[in-house]
């Protein structure tokens, strides 16, 4: 197993991450705009908006936790590789 991430893979991962963030942001903005402009009573629209906002918040918190764990794994891999290299050249 190769513990090093090539610069090309790293750039690819960053592009995918950026695209995912933009996609989620665009979807969220579109959903909020659609709810606000929908021909419903204000109370119904606000309730629906709050329900969806809570759902998106939970989803984003889950994704944030997932990405935090991935970042910690990468950090641990790098620390392990650095200690291996240090041990080999010491």
Total strands: the figure is 0
User: What structural class do you assign from the helix and strand content?
Assistant: mainly alpha
Distance between the termini: 24 Å
Average of the residue pLDDT scores:
79
Indicate the overall shape: elongated
Low-confidence stretches: none
How would you portray this structure in words?
This protein has one domain. It is built from 2 helices and no strands. It is elongated. It has 90 residues and is an all-alpha fold. The longest helix has 48 residues, at 42-89. The protein starts with 6 loop residues before the first helix and ends with a helix. Helix 1 runs antiparallel to helix 2 (42-89).
Task: Give descriptors for this structure.
90 residues; single chain; mainly alpha; elongated
Describe the secondary structure blueprint for this structure.
Elements: H1 7-37, H2 42-89
Helix pairs in contact: 1-2
Please provide a brief summary of the model.
The chain is mostly helical and about 90 residues long. It is built from 2 helices and no strands. It starts with 6 loop residues before the first helix and ends with a helix.
């Amino acid at each position: 197993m190769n513990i090093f991430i090539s610069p090309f893979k790293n750039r690819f991962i960053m592009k995918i991450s950026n695209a995912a963030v933009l996609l989620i942001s665009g979807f969220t903005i579109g959903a909020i705009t659609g709810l606000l402009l929908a021909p419903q009573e204000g109370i119904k629209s606000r309730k629906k908006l709050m329900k969806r906002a809570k759902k998106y918040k939970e989803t984003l918190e889950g994704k944030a936790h997932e990405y935090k764990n991935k970042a910690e794994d990468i950090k641990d891999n790098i620390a392990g590789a650095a200690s291996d290299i240090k041990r080999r050249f010491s």
